[in-house]
Amino acid sequence: MARRFDHLADVEALVAVVDHGSLTAAAVALSTTPSVISRAVARLETRLGNQLLRRTTRRTSLTEAGRLYVEQARAAFHLIDDAERAVQGEAGTLNGQVRISVPTTYGHYRLPWLLRDFVQRHPQVRLEVNIANRNVDLVAEGYDLAIRLGALPDSGLVGRTLEDATLSVVASPDYLAAHGTPHTLDDLATHVCLPFVLPSSGRVAPWLFRVDGGDVDWVPCSRLEVSDDVLGVVSLAQAGVGICQTYDFIIDACTRRGAELARVLPELSGRTRPFSLIYAPHRRLSAASRALIDALVSATTTRT
């Protein structure tokens, strides 16, 4: 009996060209040469009797037939991937791979401690942790899980709340000695505040306060703004440049030491922002992914 799918390596080569943008980049990703990738695509085109790629000296693009084929091929590869995930862990020892994306704040200051016990308990599980200041597309980019800040949009994703992270306003002792300590919300207008520009909207993120039992969103205005990496405002505050608002889990150690950062306007604190763990509901989660979800939710519940 002839093998029906002995051309799957050629299909993988085509998808790699589309994903990485060129024959050369696909060859690097698959640890081969551009000529091997080119021959694989040519064999596939001969098999299907259709041109799939338009090749010029400057760029490579899909034909309409190629677009339809790659779309279906990706779906097929996802099904194979899901089938493998479904049986991972059945032999008793938890194994397999989990890809998770997290923002820099959580990736540097929260996740390491949450993962420590999981890594020790499940040495056969391979974790790929992407720490970045962007919201990945879980399905298109092949992530199993992601941790995101803020209220979840109505995107069809499943969300599990990890924690409501409390916020504080902080400045360095050197800055406060030079510029004085603000005692009211109005006082902040006379200080160097360090706003963060949200990458999703291009707008300055408001600072969240609780004043006389009510919630107040205050938008800082400054000649200095930070974008892309929100941890930049903390670094600037530590250097004595100005005042910032950030999460307690980032600055707790600094404020305890006292030499790097001090809390400002503590009587106006109490507001929080949520962090959630999300995943696509239509993808069958592997045993390793389910175990990691349970571990992260349990760890944050215990800590808070």
Secondary-structure blueprint of this entry?
Elements lengths: L7 H13 L2 H7 L4 H15 L4 E3 L4 E3 L1 H24 L8 E7 L1 H6 L1 H11 L3 E7 L6 H4 L3 E5 L8 E14 L1 H7 L16 E2 L9 E5 L2 E5 L7 E2 L3 H8 L5 E4 H10 L4 E3 L7 E8 L7 H17 L1
Parallel strand pairs: 3-4, 3-5, 7-10
Antiparallel strand pairs: 1-2, 5-13, 6-11, 6-12, 6-13, 8-9
What does this structure look like?
This protein is an alpha/beta fold and 304 residues long. It has three domains: 8-87, Winged helix-like DNA-binding domain superfamily/Winged helix DNA-binding domain (Arc Repressor Mutant, subunit A, Orthogonal Bundle), CATH 1.10.10; 96-162 and 274-303, 3-Layer(aba) Sandwich (D-Maltodextrin-Binding Protein, domain 2); 164-272, 3-Layer(aba) Sandwich (D-Maltodextrin-Binding Protein, domain 2), CATH 3.40.190. Helix content is 40%, strand content 22%. The chain has eleven helices and 13 strands. Strand 1 (53-55) and strand 2 (60-62) form a beta hairpin. Helix 1 (8-20) packs across helix 2 (23-29) and helix 1 crosses helix 3 (34-48). The termini are far apart. The model has no long low-confidence stretch (mean pLDDT 86).
